């Protein structure tokens, strides 16, 4: 049984780790990652403004209860280490998150927020919370996928808290997967504060809440135990509206009374050190610690384990939805890009045709102009005589050699010229720009005027063309390759999701029962303290306890990415 539990735990850890790395890959140390940062679904979603389902790859349990209800003892027992102070006096003042680490370590407020970014909003919202927040790490396998949040005991009267404890508990309950309410049968179990929190949280998250009557072994007789259970149930059900059967689990930490709870046989069983043939009845007997008192602490552990399982299923389902969403978004971007490129190509064609038309027209008009000038010169020379075309100086020669008709023609030409000159002078008076042009005309030869005019026309056409046919902004080739790489990555993630889902179902389904489940791989040691600081810097809300395996997975994805890019960079888009 313990072996099967271990197999299941290792498989879940591996799946969650792989899911996490698809969202938040960590840079490789051996690669120049500043130039080529690893791709992740989270950064792709951010880059393309796609809304994806939030990713939480770790399960978390919030433990709430009255003062001395045994919250810290339960956390220590579950994690298998003496992490939290315990005692009859008020011991816990702040909030402590117990999580996985390769060593037993303690982080204070700001480091805790770096490691668990979801707490940032709470530290900003509630003054005094950051100073009373800490994180403790321990190398227990059971904590690989789980964070236990220990809270200050709730008491009425003059009890002062360094922060708004009710507000913080309410907000933490939003984030966590399961909330355990522990009631101490000896102390003030159902105070006003505790009951109002029960009421508030049960209204919002009825499925997350578990009620436990802790320290049951401290009640001397079975009769009194039944009385306490009845009274507590009555008080609670009068406060909350219970839709289904109300369950108050009587629990106690075996060995807590004697202070030996970290060394009991039950702990060994829970850690998987006991033999495979250990039955549930034997384990129950171990949990009772040799007494006849009913202890449902294993049911509570089962509930926590189921939460972790649900996390995997939710993670796989969210991965499927998110990869589909991102694939759609990227396809849309590619389509838009292609549409822009097509429109630009059409516009370029139009521009080319326009310029070809302008060129052809200028050739035709140039040819026609040249021909008309040549014809008019030759006809003038024929009618008036040589030299006429070059100016009025030749007029005398023409008069002597031509007849009266030719003289009339020349006189008409001169009068026409005079009238044009008169008109130009009148216009120069009205439009000063023309006066400047006239001044220039005296100095600049006529053919340069023509050339300038032609250039002005061309410029005007070019401006008109650029205004009318402005091309749409497109991605550069590099950016387009990046887009393609992302799409390939999302496709790879889709395949990975299918593979992981299959592995998980194989493990849970009949094949697993027949011994065909996924092979159990021992999870290598978790991150060291320095690795924790590294993961703290990463944007991931969850962390992996196994960086070496991360490298393996990531290496595979990167090799595929690179291989794909080298093979055929435009396979999907061109
Ligand atoms: N008999 C018995 N005693 C327990 C059990 N759990 C805890 N205790 C004792 O109860 C006392 C209080 O335990 P803590 O774990 O410090 O309780 P707590 O809820 O964390 O208390 P605060 O942090 O002060 O609110 C300690 O002396 C424990 O040894 C249990 O299951 N059975
Ligand atoms: Mg405590």
UniProtKB/TrEMBL annotation:
Q: Biased-composition ranges for Gly residues?
A: 392-405
InterPro entries named among the record's database cross-references: Mitofusin_fam, P-loop_NTPase
By its UniProt entry, which Gene3D superfamilies does this protein fall under?
P-loop containing nucleotide triphosphate hydrolases (3.40.50.300)
- Please tell me whether the keyword Transmembrane helix is annotated for this protein: yes
- Please give the biological process terms from Gene Ontology that the record holds: mitochondrion organization
The domain of life for this entry's organism is Eukaryota
Bilayer-spanning residue ranges? 352-375, 448-468
Which keywords appear in this protein's UniProt record, sorted alphabetically? GTP-binding, Hydrolase, Membrane, Nucleotide-binding, Transmembrane, Transmembrane helix
List the residue ranges of the region (Disordered). 386-405, 516-574
Cite a single GO MF annotation: GTPase activity
**PANTHER family recorded:** DYNAMIN N-TERMINAL DOMAIN-CONTAINING PROTEIN, TRANSMEMBRANE GTPASE FZO1
What is the name of this protein? Answer: G domain-containing protein
Query: From which organism does this entry originate?
Result: Chromera velia CCMP2878
């Amino acid at each position: 049984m313990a072996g099967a539990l271990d197999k299941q735990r290792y498989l879940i850890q591996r799946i969650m780790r792989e899911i996490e790395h698809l969202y938040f890959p960590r840079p490789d140390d051996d690669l120049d990652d500043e130039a080529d940062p690893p791709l992740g679904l989270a950064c792709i979603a951010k880059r393309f403004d796609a809304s994806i389902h939030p990713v939480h790859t770790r399960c978390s349990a919030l433990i709430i209860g009255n003062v001395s209800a045994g919250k810290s003892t339960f956390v220590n027992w579950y994690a298998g280490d003496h992490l939290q102070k315990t005692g009859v006096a008020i011991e816990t003042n702040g909030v402590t998150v117990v999580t996985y680490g390769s060593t037993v370590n303690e982080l204070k407020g700001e480091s805790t927020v770096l490691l668990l970014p979801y707490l940032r909003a709470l530290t900003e919202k509630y003054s005094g919370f950051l100073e009373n927040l800490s994180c403790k790490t321990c190398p227990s396998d059971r904590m690989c996928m789980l964070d236990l949040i220990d809270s200050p005991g709730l008491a009425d009267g003059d009890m002062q808290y360094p922060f708004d404890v009710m507000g913080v508990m309410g907000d933490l309950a939003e984030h966590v997967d399961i909330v355990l309410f522990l009631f101490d049968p000896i102390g003030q179990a159902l105070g006003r504060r505790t009951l109002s929190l029960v009421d508030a949280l049960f209204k919002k998250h009825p499925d997350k809440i578990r009620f436990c009557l802790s320290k049951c072994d401290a009640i001397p007789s079975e009769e009194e135990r039944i009385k306490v259970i009845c009274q507590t149930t009555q008080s609670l059900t009068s406060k909350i509206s219970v839709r289904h059967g109300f369950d108050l689990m009587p629990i106690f930490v075996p060995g807590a009374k004697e202070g030996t709870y970290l060394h009991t046989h039950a702990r060994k069983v829970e850690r998987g050190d006991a033999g495979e043939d250990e039955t549930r009845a034997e384990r129950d007997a171990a949990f009772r610690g040799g007494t006849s008192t009913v202890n449902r602490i294993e049911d509570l552990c089962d509930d926590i384990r189921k939460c972790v399982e649900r996390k995997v299923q939710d993670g796989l389902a969210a991965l499927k939805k998110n990869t589909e969403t991102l694939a759609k978004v990227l396809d849309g971007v590619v389509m838009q890009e292609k549409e822009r490129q097509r429109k630009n190509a059409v516009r370029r064609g139009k521009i080319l045709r326009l310029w070809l038309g302008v060129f052809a027209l200028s050739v035709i008009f140039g040819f026609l102009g040249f021909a008309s000038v040549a014809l008019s010169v030759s006809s003038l020379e024929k009618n008036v005589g040589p030299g006429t075309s070059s100016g009025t100086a030749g007029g005398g020669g023409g008069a002597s050699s031509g007849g009266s008709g030719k003289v009339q023609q020349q006189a008409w030409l001169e009068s026409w010229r005079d009238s044009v000159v008169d008109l130009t002078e009148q216009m120069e008076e009205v439009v000063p720009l023309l006066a400047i042009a006239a001044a220039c005309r005296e100095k600049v030869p006529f053919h340069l005027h023509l050339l300038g005019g032609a250039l002005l026309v061309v410029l005007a056409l070019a401006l008109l063309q650029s205004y009318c046919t402005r091309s749409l902004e497109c991605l550069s080739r590099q950016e387009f390759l990046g887009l393609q790489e992302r799409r390939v990555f999302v496709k790879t993630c889709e395949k990975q999701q299918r593979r992981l889902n299959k592995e998980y179902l194989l493990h849970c389904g009949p094949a697993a029962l027949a011994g065909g489940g996924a092979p159990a791989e021992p999870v290598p040691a978790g991150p060291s303290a320095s690795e924790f600081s590294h993961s703290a810097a990463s944007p991931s809300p969850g962390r992996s306890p196994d960086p070496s395996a991360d490298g393996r997975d990531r290496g595979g994805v990167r090799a595929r990415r690179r291989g794909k890019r080298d093979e055929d960079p435009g396979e999907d888009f061109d």
